[in-house]
Amino acid sequence: MYDPALETLPRERLRERQWGRFAAMAAELCATNPFWKAAWRAAGAGAAADLRGWDDFARLPLTTKQMFVADQTAHPSFGTNLTYPLERYVRVHQTSGTTGTPLRWLDTQESWDWWARCWGFVLAGAGVRPDDRVYVPFSFGLFIGFWTGFEGARALGALAIPGGGVDSLTRLATMDALGATVLVCTPSYALHLAETGRARGLDPAKLPVRVTVHAGEPGAGIPAVRARIEECWGARAFDHAGMTEMGAYGYECEAQAGLHVNETEFIAEVIDPATGRPAPEGELVLTNLGRLGSPVIRYRTGDRVRLAEGPCACGRTFARLEGGILGRLDDMLIVRGVNVFPSAIEGIVRRFSAIDEFRIEVRREGQLDEVRVLVEVAGGGDGALRDVREAFRAGLGIRLEVAAVPPGSLPRFELKARRVVRA
Ligand SMILES: [Zn+2]
């Protein structure tokens, strides 16, 4: 079960606890998990006795998504990251496939319960209680997505309401009929659902939703996106971070001062992506501690983050990522020599209430990216376009081409939004 006392442990106790759990897991992996045995033997740590403390941990190899994809390709269907015989596993899911070949991931009963426990931290951080009714508008398919948020709501004792297999209007009607107080979905979908309601004369802010929890995109961590979701729903919006292969590791507290990393269930490191050395800002590297059947250790997430200094007002001692996930390292654009994350562009576009949807078109020219931003402006208007251009210049320090497209012409997203299109 979710245990709030863990969130305020002194740092030394937290580190001891992490090490105890890691060492116990490592002993098991060295005995039975072919993937980690091979990876660590190559790095001179083939036995549990080779792992005596944090210095040894820091010498373990960094791992990447490509390594697991290659392993699953060479050893179909599930690869070699299996600590137990296949009959121990009870769930199979896969990544959304937005960035190449989907990764499959198996869970045991224990690790599925662990997922629900991790989501307990996420939901409790957002102030969700057992008397809440949590609506999850999600197509409950192979993508792990909000399956685990749904399980987490149940584990917390709240009422979990599945919202798969129906259109947006039916979803709004269900939320109304069942008195949903919490909405769990991607930031894009929260905006789309609200837009759909408004187009039919239904104001989502009149529904009893008081909290929204988002994942799948950096959106809810971007101030302008958050403000817009909160305005549409008349609710407080919370950001959360997780990955299919890793787990639900990051969440906001009521102070909303960045993402806390759940350090009872994960070990977080931040490295300079070029050198691999520890850095206050750089790539987030994670290890999970409760998914023993298929764990991930020293995993390069590809997410750029900045560690916050000082304690959080909420009293949690967990590390904090300032501004949440700042962007995907492989999504970073270089526009006339300036590094720009698509999330920074979104942060500016979302300040304009007349813009419902947008798309970023990227054309590579040599080593540089040429960017054009397409926006749907309600009622058209050159004035709005001029304002957006000026906001880009002021906010990013560069000029971007901005063009209007007819309202409703760009795609809407239920899962991870694909708004960056490369020509
Ligand atoms: Zn906090």
Measure the end-to-end span. Answer: 48 Å
Spans where pLDDT lies below 50 across 5 or more residues? none
Report the sheet with the most strands, covering strand number, pairing sense and barrel closure. Answer: 8 strands, mixed
How many distinct beta strands?
A: 20
Rg measurement, Å:
22 Å
Range of strand content: 15-25%
Give helix % range.
25-40%
Bound molecules: zinc ion
**Per the principal axes of the C-alpha atoms, what is the gross shape?**
globular
The helix-and-strand class reads: alpha/beta
Mean pLDDT across all amino acids: 92
Number of DSSP helices? 11
Strand order of the largest sheet: 4-3-5-6-7-8-9-13
Describe the structure.
- With 423 residues, this protein is of the alpha/beta class.
- The protein has helices spanning 11-32, 34-42, 54-59, 65-74, 109-125, 147-156, 168-178, 187-199, 223-233, 342-349, 382-396, and strands at residues 89-94, 104-108, 133-136, 159-162, 182-185, 211-214, 236-243, 247-251, 259-261, 266-271, 281-288, 299-306, 320-321, 327-328, 333-335, 338-340, 355-365, 368-377, 401-405, 420-422.
- The strands form five sheets. Strands 4-3-5-6-7-8-9-13 form an eight-stranded mixed sheet. It has a four-stranded antiparallel sheet with strand order 10-11-12-14. Strands 19-18-17-20 form a four-stranded mixed sheet, with helices on one face.
- Helix 1 packs across helix 2, helix 5 (109-125) packs across helix 6 (147-156) and helix 8 packs parallel to helix 9 (223-233).
- The longest helix is centred in the N-terminal third of the chain and has 22 residues, at 11-32.
- The N and C termini lie far apart (48 Å).
- The mean pLDDT is 92.
